[in-house]
Amino acid sequence: MVKCFSRSAAGNSLSKPHILRPPSVLRNTVSYLLNEVLTIENVPFNIVYDFIDDRLNSIRQDATIQAVSNQDWMAILPPIIRFHAYAAYKCYEFDVNTFDPFLNMKHFHESIFKMIKILLEDSDESTNELCSEMVSLLIVTNLGDYNVLQQALPFISKKNTLIKMAVLLSLNIMNGNFRQLFETYNKFPAMHQCVICVQLPMLRKNILKSMCMGFNCKNNYFPISILSKMLLHNEPRETIKECQHYCLTVVDDKVELSKSSFNNEVDELHLKKKIKFKVNVSTMVLNI
User: Are the C-beta atoms of 56 and 26 separated by less than 8 Å?
Assistant: First the structure.
């Protein structure tokens, strides 16, 4: 039921019927990996991730070789997409030699673009909830990306508030209006928050830079408490650290927003936003 991913090569055909798992087995394998293996706690998560990621790639490979139906894809892909979204957040502070965030997001995008294509071809009222989740998740994973917004256009409707909220957030960030970020962040589901959190270092830098341009004035100080909410930090001391990282002067509980002081050359500061998950990770990823 669980097998490693391998590439097709001379003398190693992957289309042999006796090594291919039928759709029902593929669905059960996804459930097993994300229900049983993902919850293992006595092994470092990066090792658990590598194991699951490899086996999920093998599942997608078997499904592709067999050309399974759209209905089967709609059962197989969503948990895989959620897994990669969660892993991006869970492994956020891992060293690049331990966890490759670019490869993880590559697998995420391969799966979700396949899912969007299927939803365009075969969507009805029974898939509305899934469609809302997948399209909005794609948008918030690529905030400010015009090409992604174009792909979301066929799914925008007055009834779908989650997609509309995601589109509005992305458009505002594209136009340099960051207020929408801290106003709507807590309204998104936990899985959406995971992929937003991964983009926060870049967004925080842009927010601070924008505020230094707009509030630039000698001896003009801005309260750390308010700035902390705007930057979606866990606590004010992280905001102070962020400001000092970009060479802004912090006095007591206020920061001087100075265009000349802001150092745009330094790398983004990676401070992880804590997310309170209401259910365990398996329930969340499998959407039970």
Answer: no
Task: Find residue 223's DSSP bridge partners.
Answer: 254
HSE of 249, CA atoms in CB hemisphere, 13 A: 12
Indicate if the pLDDT at residue 9 is higher than 60.
Answer: no
* Amino acid residing at 62: D
With a pLDDT cut of 70, the percent of the chain lying above it is 96
Q: For residue 3, is it left (φ>0), alpha (ψ between -120 and 50) or beta?
A: beta
Q: Contact, 79 vs 287, CB < 8 A?
A: yes
Virtual CA dihedral for 259, 262, 265, 270, nearest 10 degrees?
-140
Going across the sheet that includes 221-223, the strands are 221-223, 254-256, 250-251
- What CA–CA distance (Å, rounded) separates 149 from 166? 10
Q: Give the pLDDT mean for 109-138.
A: 89
Report percent pLDDT > 90 for the chain.
Answer: 67
User: Could you tell me which of 54, 52, 3, 8 has the C-alpha nearest to residue 25?
Assistant: 3
Cα–Cα dist 88/121, whole Å? 29
Among 267, 198, 186, which residue's Cα sits nearest to residue 229? 186
Say if CB 269 and CB 248 are below 8 A apart: no
**SS3 at position 160:** coil
Instruction: Please give the Cα distance from 173 to 167 (Å, whole number).
Output: 10
Task: Report the largest interatomic distance among the alpha carbons of the chain, rounded to a whole angstrom.
Answer: 74
Three-class secondary structure of residue 222 per DSSP? strand
Specify whether the CB–CB gap between 195 and 141 falls below 8 A: yes
Residue 232 has a CB neighbour count (10 Å cut-off) of: 21
Among 216, 271, 265, smallest CA distance to 239 is for: 271
Output the DSSP codes for 176-189. T--HHHHHHGGGS-
Residue 286 CB partners (closer than 8 Å, separation 6+): 31, 34, 35, 79, 82
